[in-house]
Specification:
461 residues; mainly alpha; 3 domains; two-stranded antiparallel sheet; 2 strands; globular
């Protein structure tokens, strides 16, 4: 009862605040899409199309009230729109039309809304608000899971979060990957967040969120979680400016993790090296082999949920049908063909390289240093997705596409700030250093109104 009332108040608050600040409606959609209150409320919200209402309000508010400073056209945004068009076209030749339409209904909205986000999320406050809402919406789901894991040890296929069943955030592979992706983002907010009151305990609070996220990932007993955790640690180590300190922390956490994990977790994870004998791993390999064969004869894919037509033969002669792809790469290949896979990989690769360029340009610029830190956090999260996702079919889940959207917003923000502080090519010599100092955060610089250094008379024109 109280939970439902609280969720209704939060939902109405997003709608109310959005009347004065339209971008809040976009944050509201992210909250609904991530936290999914309709699945944990007992009345009202579970009877309404809350996602559709908030999404429609976001788009209408932007069109009517907020069409200013649109971002420049970029490759990733174009590819997102093309991806949305392509997944719609594949419905024409879908192997399982009814199931394909069901998945298209949410996957298409995820892709297109992520392409819409950079139109609304433009300033530093908006970018941070987006990240804060996303982290908090996820934390509400995994904090209970993480606490229970620390108490009970977790377990494979055990539901310890808010949602039941084996779909969405209650599915171990999706939940563990998502938790690891937001660890660097939570740590970034603890260091650079400006929306919440700064307090000496604030970084510890975000550190606790990150710790419970890791505990949740390990508590799912998913083998992909271990792979994602190793990649996360390695990439964060490479991007860290304090490698010795970070390495010592990783070593301590690794030792604690070894002694804290149960024998059941160790037995589950040890099957990674037994893929020829472990039935689950062997089935995945056989499904991937079937997918490659299918794609060679159907280069445009078989539409969403095309795995229902697969059939594989086990070494003992048993034939299995309709086994899921269990990999973002084979999921996209089997459903969207080589065209879809090419767009998907280009979106991911272009985003990561773009973020690396942002980090390189801003790391030594005082007023943009936070952009370099956020760039590193987004890169780390995407690397987790691309590694752990190789063993989980979650290619069209919102987490990947929201990270892409945040990356575009960040890159556009950096480009906008750099253009606003651009030094004209005509500024040379002693004046160049003074103008450059202004760009780096010094006194304001105005074109054609340079003030000469003390004791130096300007040369008449």
């Amino acid at each position: 009862m109280l939970r439902s009332l609280l969720l209704i108040v939060v939902y109405l608050t997003f709608l109310g605040l959005g009347l004065g600040a339209p971008f809040v409606l976009t944050l509201g959609y992210v909250w609904v899409d991530t936290f999914q209150p309709q699945y944990v409320a007992y009345f009202v919200l579970n009877q309404l199309p809350v996602s559709m209402i908030m999404g429609a309000a976001s788009v209408l508010a932007y069109v009517a009230l907020d069409r200013r400073s649109p971002p420049r056209l970029n490759l990733v945004s174009v590819l997102q729109v093309l991806m949305g068009i392509w997944v719609t076209l594949t419905l024409i030749w879908a192997e399982a039309p009814a199931l394909a339409w069901d998945k298209w209904d949410w996957a298409f909205k995820t892709i297109m809304f992520s392409a819409f986000v950079p139109l609304v999320i433009r300033s530093r406050v908006q970018i941070e608000a987006f990240a804060q809402i996303y982290v908090f919406a996820l934390a509400a789901n995994f904090i209970p899971f993480g606490v229970k894991t620390l108490i009970s040890g977790g377990g494979y296929g055990v539901n310890l979060g808010l949602q039941g069943g084996n779909t969405g955030l209650s599915e171990g592979g999706l939940l563990s990957t998502l938790c690891l992706m937001i660890v660097p983002l939570a740590l970034f907010l603890g260091r650079h967040g400006q929306l919440l009151p700064r307090h000496k305990l604030m970084p510890l609070a975000y550190l606790g969120i990150a710790g419970l996220a890791v505990a949740t990932a390990l508590g799912t007993y998913e083998r992909s979680a271990l792979i994602g955790l190793v990649v996360l640690a390695a990439y964060m180590f490479m991007r860290s400016q304090h490698k010795i300190r970070f390495g010592l922390v990783l070593a301590v956490l690794g030792i604690v993790g070894i002694y804290a994990t149960s024998s059941h977790w160790t037995a589950r994870i040890s099957t990674i090296g037994e893929y020829n004998e472990e039935s689950s791993a062997l089935v995945r390999i056989l499904v991937w082999r079937w997918t490659l064969g299918y794609a060679s004869g159907h280069p445009f894919g078989g539409g969403f949920s095309s795995f229902v037509i697969d059939h594989i033969e086990l070494p003992g002669g048993e034939i299995l049908f309709s086994r899921a792809f269990h990999s973002i790469y084979f999921e996209v290949l089997g459903e969207q063909g080589w065209v879809g896979l090419g767009m998907f990989l280009t979106i991911a690769g272009s985003t990561i390289f773009g973020l690396r360029r942002v980090a390189k340009r801003t790391r030594n610029v005082p007023h943009l240093a936070w952009c370099a830190e956020m760039s590193d956090a987004l890169q780390s999260g995407l690397m987790v997705f691309l590694s752990a996702g190789a063993f989980v079919g979650i290619a069209f889940q919102p987490m990947f596409w929201y990270f892409i959207a945040m990356s575009i917003s960040l890159r556009q923000y950096v480009g906008r700030v750099e253009r606003e502080h651009a030094v004209k090519p005509t500024v040379t010599g002693r004046w160049q250093g003074r103008a450059a100092a202004a760009v780096m955060g010094g006194p304001a610089w105005q074109p054609n109104r340079l003030v000469p250094p003390e004791g130096v008379r300007p040369r008449p024109h």
